[in-house]
Structures are given as C-alpha cells and as structure tokens.
Amino acid sequence: MIVVVGIGADGMAGLAPPSRAELGRATVVYGSQRQLDLLDDTVTAVRRCWPSPMLPALHTFADDVDGDVHVVASGDPLLHGVGSTLIRIHGADRVAVLPHVSSVTLACSRVGWPVQDTEVISLVWQQPTTAVRRGGQAVVLSRDATTPAELARLLTETGRGDSEITLLEQLGGPRELRRSSTAAEWARRPPGDVDDLNVMAIRYLPDERVFATLPDEVFAHDGQITKQDMRAVTLAALSPRAGEHLWDVGAGAGSVAVEWCRSAPGCRATAFERDPDRRARIAANAMAFGVPVEVSFGAPESFEHVAPPAVIFVGGGVSGPGLMQACWDKLPPGGRLVANAVTAESEAVLAQWYGRCGGQLRRFQHYRGEPVGSFTGWRPAMPVTQWTVSKPDTT
User: Fold this and answer.
1) What is the mean pLDDT of residues 107-123?
2) What is the C-alpha to C-alpha distance for residues 101 and 86, in angstroms, rounded to an integer?
3) Measured between alpha carbons, how far is residue 183 from residues 189, 310, 335 in Å?
4) What is the DSSP letter of 382?
5) H or E, element range at 281
6) What is the distance between the terminal CA atoms of the chain, rounded to a whole angstrom?
7) What is the distance between the alpha carbons of residues 257 and 293, in angstroms, rounded to a whole number?
8) What is the largest CA-CA distance in the chain?
9) Cβ contacts of residue 316 below 8 Å, gap of 6+?
10) At how many degrees (to 10) do helices 276-289 and 255-263 cross?
11) pTM of the model
12) What integer pLDDT is reported at residue 9 of this predicted model?
C-alpha cells in the first residue's frame, strides 16, 4: 500500500493523530526536500527525496520497498497533487490518502471568499497564460517564486492590469506572509523576496465575463472568423466534453478553438492555420482568454506532429485536396467531426461525405436588422452548410 500524508507549512504540529501515527510507523518516506525537512525526530523512517524528473519514479518507487511505502505531500494531495497522480498510476485500491487542509481553503479563509465560488488554477505544470481571465476570482497555485511577477505582467499586457492580487506565502506556517497589490503595480515593481511556497488569490478586473458565445469584436481577426451566430451553432454541434482535445482546422482567428476551451473543464485545442499573421492572432486570442490553444502550421501536413484529437472542426479548406480524408483518417472511433462550408465547391465536398458516411447535413441562413434610411431592413449573411458526423466505433 502507498500511503500519502498531506502536511502543511506548520509541519508535524499541524498533523492530525492518524497522520502522525502513519508517519511514526513508516519505514520509508518519499517527498520533496522541503516536505521531508518538516518531519521531526518522531519519524524514524528512511527519507528519500524525489529525483528529477519525478514522474518516471512514481511508476516504480514502491517496487523497491517491502510493505507499505509513505509519501509526504503539501496540503491536500488530491488537489493538483501527487496523490491524484499516484492513484492514476497504481489504482485507488493501492493508494490511501490522508489529506491536510489545502492551500486553496487556507487562501480563501484569508481573503474571505467562499471556496465553492472560487476557481482553482494550477501553474505548477501549466504556463502562466492559462491563468489569464476576463473576470471572476481564482486561487492560483504558483510554480515558484517567479510566478507572481510573471502572471502580473501577463495580466497587465492583456488589459487586466487593475486585477487585485493577494500573495500568500508559507500559508499556515509560522512564517506566513500576506501582500496585496494590483497586477499593473507588480508588473512595474515586482514583489521581492517571494517564497517558493506561495499561492495567489486574484480578483480579475475589469470584469468582462461573457458566458454565452463571445462577440466577434473581442477577437483579433482579419475577417476570417466564424461569426458569433454560427459559432454558437457550431459549438452546439461539437458538443464539448470535459478534458477533450479539439483540432480546429483552417482556424482563421481561432475563435472556435477559444470557445471550445472555455466551454468545459480541461478542454484544450490545436489550431491549424497556414497564414503566419493569422497564427499570431490565434496565439494572441488564446492568451487574452487564458485558454490552452496550441498553434500549428497548415493541415494536413502538420497532423503527425500534434496530440490526437477527440473532435475535429473544419472551418476552412474543406475543398482542399485530401483534407477531409486526412481528417477522417485521424478521427478516432467514436470521435465527432463538424465541417462548415460557404462556397459551392465546399458544399459539394460535404454532400459527397454525407452520402458516404451519413451524419447530419444542415444549411443555416440568418438575417440581421440594419438601418435602411430611417427604417430597418433585413440584411442576409452568407448561408453556411454544416456536416456533423460521429465516426463509427469498430470495436
């Protein structure tokens, strides 16, 4: 059995009796050097520091120990911690977790936020861009002492400079420290002497949250963008599910990829675009919304160099030689594909694929009211043909 014991910055003094008892009977204890240093003389076990890289060691470390092996981890090991990783690798029946109070709960208690209303973002393994938001509040788990200044700079560069940041260091320990400022202030004068063990409580300002599909004007684009009305229809057809990976092929401004990532926890996307200026805009749009969109070169030649998709959206290039076939070949069994077309040539391609593979073929036409002198008239948008299909599961 692998027993994972959560420990706070207050060390052994803050442990519950069951956690102290587990460490007291341990023969081998693994952890980071900082966590191992929190143990006192009542823990007589051999102490082994995690190697770097750590992940490969998690697969085999328990094989070298007779009986139970113990692990110490910060706070709640199941909150973006090693406990979750060990369960994924070894199974829930081989891992027992004794959690401590999490840094998220401690941070919320210091700033007076309800935990259930607060987003949790980990930058331990993710890039700081994933913590950019356009409103709301979050507890952000830092990678190290450099994270607060780097995130303050990113927030300022993306128009979030008024965001209020409370930096909390050594939470729950005798050296706990709290500092507050705006992102813009810390971007100009970064906080000094930041402890590696820190989290941030951030209120994102100005608050410009939009929970439906986003207006076109919030994206950087050159006109090649799936417009808001069609984007809503397209997202409904794509049916995002938590943790899925989307390929946005012929991405233009990357608006569908951005909306996909905003739609459900853990959703991520790869945007394929040939034009270098558009690739730069996609990256800027992804940064502005703090979403995990990887930008790749044109399709289908770049398909071999990225992670496989669960869902594919083809927004441009439908009539390109071999593109739809390449997308179909890369779509896993049970995966979903949605393709939009606005030209007669692209419509013909989708009609052929519909006849071959089935699915649903729809055509959308919508109008917008616009001034006609002192009156209002209806101006039609270009009609869009959409093919939606799920690849049969052959298993």
Assistant:
1) 96
2) 19
3) 10, 36, 41
4) P
5) helix 276-289
6) 35
7) 7
8) 87
9) 224, 249, 250, 251, 252
10) 30
11) 0.80
12) 93
Kindly tell me the burial class for residue 16, based on how many C-beta atoms sit within 10 Å of its own C-beta (0-12, 13-18, 19 or more).
Answer: middle
What DSSP designation does 41 have? Answer: T
264: CB partners within 8 A, 6+ apart: 240, 241, 242, 243, 244
Q: Is 93 helix (H, G, I), strand (E, B) or coil?
A: helix
Residues 6+ apart with CB under 8 A from 119: 133, 136, 137, 138, 139
**Mean of all residue pLDDT scores within the chain:** 94
Residue with tokens 């989290």: 199
The mean per-residue pLDDT over the stretch 127-139 comes to: 94
Q: Which residues contact 167 (CB under 8 A, 6 or more apart)?
A: 148, 177, 178, 179, 180, 181, 191, 194, 198, 200
How far apart are alpha carbons 245 and 249 in whole angstroms?
13
Alpha-helical (H) ranges within 112-146 are none
Digit-coded pLDDT (tens) for 48-85: 999 988 888 899 888 777 788 999 999 999 999 999 99
